[in-house]
Design a protein that fits this description.
CATH class of the largest domain: Alpha Beta
CATH superfamily of the largest domain: Type I PLP-dependent aspartate aminotransferase-like (Major domain)
Bound molecules: pyridoxal-5'-phosphate
Structural class: alpha/beta
Helix content: 25-40%
Strand content: 5-15%
Shape: globular
CATH architecture of the largest domain: 3-Layer(aba) Sandwich
Distance between the termini: 76 Å
Strand order of the largest sheet: 1-7-6-5-4-2-3
Order of helices and strands: HHHEHEHEHEHEHEEHHHEHEHEEHEH
Low-confidence stretches: none
CATH topology of the largest domain: Aspartate Aminotransferase, domain 2
Length: about 400
């Protein structure tokens, strides 16, 4: 289309425009920046379970809500744009996305998995898919030699979380992709911790990206959701069939909440990132704190790699206290920081992985990964960092009083 015709026909909603925008603008405007029918700036919530067929054999593109919904479709297209894939699929939770994804594989297939990952993923694979005849190897995927050693003739995929949860180990995504592609398998990356604002695994060779949208994407601790983003046409057909058959699809209202959250992902991530650096540095200087795990420290063992493949460190900071008795005192005495499972929302949360997110992982494996009774994990929110520090300081002072 020449310039004159383009001007005459006026702006078209969507029309691939967002794909060419910079990330901050693509997040704000999504795949379809306004509703073509009404001009609504906010994507309408199509709260309809079913859709009328115009005639026998014809469809508006929407038939039944489990299969497709216009609000969900807008979110799925937006996720594909911001995560640099061709296709996006939205699910009712991160686990819904991961459970659907594993059905791309078959009994007998072997999958290599990061040992230090979200406990729910471990539980799903170990308590269910293992019994269905899938096999899994749990290893430290930040060491490429261990990944190579774990390969078997029937290995079909490598599933990584980077940075890992909760120990903040970094896996080299490009190297991981090379190793598994050499076996004809797929690299799957759980990109929940950094979000597409700071890391785009597909650009680094990952075939599939999964997200718990409950975390940074939604960003406000008010909605559960999960996503798969990828670029393979054949897998898309299978994944759509899984989504349609299994029914873990995201509801229209929840899709709208995530769309609303995504608009501010960029500014939120920048604030999570700068706050986490301040809090991590402060924690590091405390007497009662033994060690702080944070990928933004220059002496983090994989700092250079982290800078190479990511644009930020995000808001996650884990730390060991010296005295295990301090854990209970800290959790009881924090007031601004909320003792609650989850991460990625505007509120600062603290988690005790041993008893919460990682309780499903067997003790020996958990300890080998570093998840012990002295580990706490902070999801640093977007409050004033001085308030976050003051809260931690007060709780540590209580430890001094009670445990010395
Ligand atoms: C929370 C989380 C999940 C699971 O997502 P839900 O939305 O809670 O089902 C998966 N992976 C990571 C890294 C998570 O933090």
């Amino acid at each position: 289309m020449n310039e004159k015709d383009r001007c005459k026909s006026g702006a078209q909603p969507g029309a691939g425009r967002a794909g060419r925008l910079s990330p901050a603008s693509a997040l704000v405007h999504g795949a379809t920046p306004f509703d073509p029918l009404t001009g609504a700036v906010s994507t309408p919530i199509f709260q309809s379970a079913t859709f009328r067929h115009p005639a026998l054999g014809s469809s508006t593109g929407y038939d039944y809500g489990r299969v497709g919904n216009p609000t969900r479709a807008e979110l799925e297209k937006t996720m594909a744009i911001i995560e640099h894939g061709r296709y996006g699929l939205a699910f009712s939770s991160g686990m819904g996305a991961i459970s659907s994804l594993v059905k791309l594989f078959s009994p007998g297939d072997h999958i290599i998995v990061s040992e230090d990952l979200y406990g729910g993923t471990y539980r799903l694979f170990n308590d269910f898919y293992r019994l269905y005849g899938y096999s899994f190897s749990w290893i430290d995927t930040s060491d490429p030699d261990l990944v190579k050693k774990a390969l078997r003739p029937e290995t079909r995929a490598l599933f990584i979380e980077t940075p890992s949860n909760p120990m903040m180990k970094v896996t080299d995504i490009e190297t991981a992709a090379d190793i598994i592609h050499g076996k004809g398998g797929l690299l799957i990356t759980d990109n929940t911790f950094l979000s597409p604002w700071f890391q785009n695994p597909i650009d680094l060779g990952s075939d599939i990206v999964v997200h718990s949208g409950t975390k940074y994407l939604g960003g406000h601790n008010d909605v559960l959701s999960g996503f798969i983003v990828h670029s393979d046409g054949a897998n898309e057909e299978t994944l759509r069939n899984i989504q349609k058959s299994e029914g873990a699809s995201l509801s229209p209202f929840d899709a709208w909440l995530v769309l609303r959250g995504l608009k501010t992902l960029g500014i939120r991530m920048e604030k999570h990132d700068s706050n986490a650096l301040i809090v991590a540095q402060w924690l590091r200087g405390r007497d009662r704190v033994e060690k702080v795990f944070y990928t933004g420290f220059e002496d983090h063992p994989q700092y250079a790699l982290s800078r190479k493949q990511s644009r930020g460190s995000g808001g996650m900071v884990s730390f060991y206290v010296k005295n295990p008795a301090d854990v209970e005192v800290i959790l009881r005495n924090l007031s601004l920081i909320l003792f609650a499972e989850s991460l990625g929302g505007v509120e600062t949360l603290i988690t005790y992985p041993l008893a919460q997110t990682h309780s499903a992982i067997p003790e020996a494996m958990r300890l080998a990964a570093g998840v012990n009774d002295r580990l706490l994990r902070l999801s640093v929110g977007i409050e004033d960092p001085l308030d976050i520090i003051a809260d931690l300081d007060a709780a540590l002072l209580c430890c001094k009083e009670e445990n010395e």
